[in-house]
Amino acid sequence: MEVVREPEKFENTTATTIICNNYLHYHAANQYTVNADRKSACRSLQKTDDLDLIERAVSTADDTITAIGEPYRQAGSPDLAQKLPNGAAAIFQSPSPSGEKGTGTDSDGSDRRRGERAVLELDCKQWLAVCGLLIVAAALGVGVGVPLALELRSSRLLEARLQVVKRILQEVPLVDGHNDLPWNIRKFLHNQLHDFHFSEDLRQQEPWSQSVWSHTDLHRLKQGMVGAQFWSAYVPCGSQYLDSVQLTLEQIDVIRRLVDKYPNQMQLVTTAKGIEEAYHSGRVASLIGVEGGHSLGSSLAVLRMFYQLGARYMTLTHTCNTPWADSSLADDPSDTLPMDFIEHGGLSGFGNLVIREMNRLGMMVDLSHVSVQTMVDALDVTKAPVIFSHSSALALCNSSRNVPDHILRKLAVNGGIVMVSFFNNFLSCTDTATLHDVIAHINHIRAIAGVNHVGLGAGYDGINLTPTGLEDVSRYPMLLAELARDRQWSSSDIKKLAGSNLVRVFREVEKDTYNTFSIQVRDDWSQVGPTEDWISMEDLDGKTYCRYPGT
Amino acid sequence: HNDLPFNLRTLNHNFLKNFTFEDLKNDPVWWNCSTCFTDLKRLLAGKLGAQFWVAYVPCKSQYKDAVEQTLEQIDVIKRLIQKYPDHLQLVTTADGIWEAFRKKKIGSLIGVEGGHSIDSRLAVLRQMYDLGVRYLTLTHACNTPWARASPVDNVSLTSDLNKEHHGGLTEFGKTVVLEMNRLGMLVDLSHVSHQTMIDAISITKSPVIFSHSSAYALCNHHRNVHDDVLVMTAKNGGVVMVNFYSEFVQCNTTRNATVDDVIAHINHIRKVAGVNHVGIGSDYDGVDSMPVGLEDVSKYPHLFERLAQTNEPRWSTEDLKKLAGLNLIRVFKEVELVCI
């Protein structure tokens, strides 16, 4: 949606630079005098608490105001030139078609004023000549300068939005719900890290450079301003009933060893407070998520041990049912996967115990990959907010991996969050998608569940089809900058989407919250001990060929 | 070495809700169980300062769900400790033992009994260390793909085991030992074959332990430690923690074992390896018969009283302290400090 129509209010729109500084901010400090006309013009454009508008200091030719903060820089990149012009609050057109840099100087401003005064002293004939010249110049300007100006304007506008987004991401950590790098490390390197150069550009290194499944390295994470990442301890469904527990331990181990290997850039984190601490120290807060209940071997003791090893969410299923929960395959069976699933119609009794134990421990329940009935059952049973670590909106793309609207409404009541997946098949239901598809999903989830219930869970390194514009982990700021064109996305809303929603959910789920005013799920649990139940043999229904049944 | 956790599994299915650990006298199942020697009341009477609780799973689970079951045993130990916070405290460092002791709680450590519990995966070893496991007995009574167990030394066995090469550690087995050194996990050589003991002590960079083994010279059971290995252990700086099990301390089937037999083993190890290399590894709850005078965990003081009365050799207070715990704590401290 186009943002601002206010240009019509200004009469001189061809050669005027209008600045909307954070005049209130600066003015309050009493360091600057603000031209009254501009103040009123700016006031009509902005809400006083609207950070993105306020901070969009682009340029000034007014010697009474000096822009503070990020000086505007002309982007000049062909990519940015592609972007459509946007009526952001800071509207400007270049004073001349030559496309100078935005940071004005005193001499420029005074020159222009001298030029204007000079015009008024001419006689009639000269007036006509000048007017004619002006008209020709204007025509030329419009014909040549406007497109150029529009390009420059759009690129400068985008650059301006990016600056604002980067400012935002320096205040709140961007938290992504799901990255499958650990599985790639297993596939490509057999979990041997001694030759893994994560701090270098993996696009230049085999086998990463050859893989469409590779999107992540430290350099691009930094460019993407990723503040916190849930690394996925995923093991395939084929290991269910076999060695899934051991494999999961190996994946947890490789995550921890990776973080140990890069102590200046990464930090293992197991609390919401930890995210903030790592973020403020300039490291990527690294959390562990277990992807698939089959990793438990149907043992609550194993769940507890995973929690103690740092796992802070568990996706209840991957692409297979467990003996206690149905996956999304129950809603959409695939021809290519084995059909020997036991179905429970959602969660079994033992599945309810799993949720209960997760609540007691303070481990987030992740409902990506599960069937709709499992979502319903989990939302009924859970005493804590839940997450979808990497799912999008079913209403926009009818995939069983996405979240139906009625679940989004329940989620709002639950207080949880949907962290939007960037996988093309889930966004557009085809093999191709763009950044705008992600935005559409974000907006839909916002519309149905609310702005407090949406986040980012790209699923990089676990997907092979990424949207145009979101090719890898460096692209998050671009997504947010594009989102910022939409008037409904204030800077505080962008902060929520980027990370503060997830941090809120995490705090609520945690055992010990340092913020005594947040909801403590744990209040009810202090007298409740660990759940000691075992899954029944009936539930396991013959799948015990790799279990020692003696005890 | 105390196998209570395995009794919890077999008798209680790891349920602790109705487990009256304070005093099991009135529990018909536990009181009549021949492998049950432990409850809080008797531990306190026995003046136990610290205990390695054992996360053991049967050898039959090897190649099956041994890892999962081991995690369940680690979990039950931790839940037991959580259930009795006034008496038990989880400990994972040498200093932690002193801390718990000063607070008059039983310092509770975790040992995993059997290399089959790690399924030949170093990552599993590391994660168990992170869960608090502080020793790994390299084998139980079965070979792993990388280490031989003591039954291969059993000259009375006519099984295939005996026909196998009396090997010790493979290359991978040595890697396991070195990784344990790096982590700071005690290498426990109870249950392993003679050659495995030699191989391990040769390769290790840290002192080792025998968590529950006695002296072969006095009772030639394959679970006991030969004199040559006792000498190596002394050089290595390790500790042999003497097992009380009747069949290990007294090979003569014509009479019952007594506390004096245990004392004989302690004295022999002291003589061959030195007073700095002997300790207590009773094996309560892991066996079905204990010597007269050491009927359950309340009897440790009785052992020490008898030792104090011994003249040949003389046990000074300092010597008794070493036997009781200072030797183990010293070894643990050194193991924590080793960096490779």
Automatic annotation (TrEMBL), chain B:
Q: How does it sit in the membrane?
A: Lipid-anchor; GPI-anchor
For this protein, the record's InterPro entries field holds: Dipep_AS, Metal_Hydrolase, Pept_M19
A Gene Ontology molecular function term of the record:
metallodipeptidase activity
The catalytic activity, as recorded, is: an L-aminoacyl-L-amino acid + H2O = 2 an L-alpha-amino acid
What UniProt keywords are attached to this protein's entry?
A: Dipeptidase, Disulfide bond, Glycoprotein, GPI-anchor, Hydrolase, Lipoprotein, Membrane, Metal-binding, Metalloprotease, Protease, Zinc
Gene Ontology cellular-component annotations: side of membrane
The family database entries (PROSITE patterns) matched by this protein are listed as: RENAL_DIPEPTIDASE_1, RENAL_DIPEPTIDASE_2
An individual GO BP term: proteolysis
What is the protein's major site of localization?
A: membrane
Q: What class of enzyme is it?
A: hydrolase
> Where is the protein localized?
Membrane
Return the CDD domains for the record. rDP_like
Q: What is its EC number?
A: 3.4.13.19
- Residues folding into a coiled coil are none
The Swiss-Prot or TrEMBL record lists the needed cofactor(s) as: Zn(2+)
How does the annotation summarize its subunit structure? Homodimer; disulfide-linked.
Write out the similarity annotation: Belongs to the metallo-dependent hydrolases superfamily. Peptidase M19 family.
Q: What is this protein called?
A: Dipeptidase
Q: Which organism is it from?
A: Zootermopsis nevadensis
